[in-house]
Design brief:
With 282 residues, this protein is α/β, with parallel strands linked by helices. It has one domain: Dihydropteroate synthase-like (TIM Barrel). The chain contains nine helices and ten strands. Helix 1 links the parallel strand 3 and strand 4. The two termini are 26 Å apart.
Length: 282
């Protein structure tokens, strides 16, 4: 499984990590942690040293109930962050987390390699056309509504058929506009109940029907800390467990706050798969 990133083929036959770097004040876990240039560069260097493949930057919080940020503020912060990171780490692949086509266009002009859209193209009708023209990989996520109201507009059953229909429709729309490299994300925590999140994780392999890479983002989310009655700061162990399950069910990309631990998870699961193949062959 390959995607074209900046005219180079990136293999996803072995799972990879996408490191989260939020340049926001109210993200549920790391909001406000990386507000200075020193903090941002230090965290970037830490993730690169740990083996991250893609760095996913965001200037708008998408936690449940989060207030929106105007486009001018998002544009300013994304441009500033891209210039800072790519000046110091020019070879890193940067994904920009945005649902606005104008931000996507500016981001790619300033060196972004991938666009990661929590709305899967449903918040901004211009996104499919813009992504097609930009010719960059596109992460197409499922959600029910904007972060401010998504937990009041929960996904109705049947869960899997509805989501398969959504992805089928949106993948076709983006391909009609010339987007060839599409990644899908079930959107854990986005308009879903805790039970639905675990149901999706357990049935993640259903989404392999589209033949595109699957990205999952469960890092330190409420599906872990609410279930275990802990805080997001205490949810690293739970994150590793869910990432393991996701990999066993077909995930290709792990979007995480903690790259070192995710890379270790990938290595362990790969070893399990290798042993399984050896047993079958012998």
């Amino acid at each position: 499984m390959l995607i074209n990133v900046k005219n180079k083929l990136l293999s996803l036959e072995s799972p990879i990590t996408m490191g989260i770097l939020n340049y926001t004040e109210d993200s549920f876990y790391d909001g406000g942690r990386y507000s200075s240039q020193t903090q941002l560069l230090s965290q970037t260097e830490k993730m690169i040293s740990a083996g991250v493949t893609i760095l996913d930057i965001g200037a708008v919080s998408t936690r449940p109930g989060a207030n929106d940020v105007d486009s001018e503020t998002e544009l300013f912060k994304v441009e500033k962050l891209l210039k800072l990171i790519l000046h110091h780490f020019p070879s890193v692949l940067v994904s920009v987390d945005t649902w606005r086509s104008e931000v996507a266009r500016l981001a790619v002009e300033h060196g972004a390699a991938i666009i990661n859209d929590i709305s899967g193209g449903t918040f901004d009708p211009k996104m499919p056309e813009v992504i097609g023209k930009l010719q960059v990989p596109y992460c197409l996520m499922h959600t029910t509504a904007h972060p401010k109201t998504m937990q009041q507009q929960l996904l109705a059953p049947p869960t899997i058929p509805q989501m398969l229909q959504f992805f089928g429709k949106q993948i076709e729309l983006f391909r009609q506009n010339g987007c060839n490299d599409i990644i899908i994300d079930p959107g854990f925590g986005f308009g879903k109940t805790l039970q639905q999140n675990y149901f999706l994780l357990n049935n993640l392999s259903a989404f392999q029907i589209f033949g595109v890479p699957i990205l999952i983002g469960v890092s330190r989310k409420s599906m872990i800390y609410k279930l275990l009655d802990i805080t997001p700061e205490e949810a690293l162990n739970g994150t590793s467990i869910l990432n393991t399950i996701a990999l066993l069910n077909g995930a290709n990309i792990l979007r995480v706050h903690d790259v070192k631990e995710a890379e270790e998870t990938i290595k362990i699961v790969q070893q399990l798969e290798l042993c399984r193949k050896e047993i079958i062959e012998n």
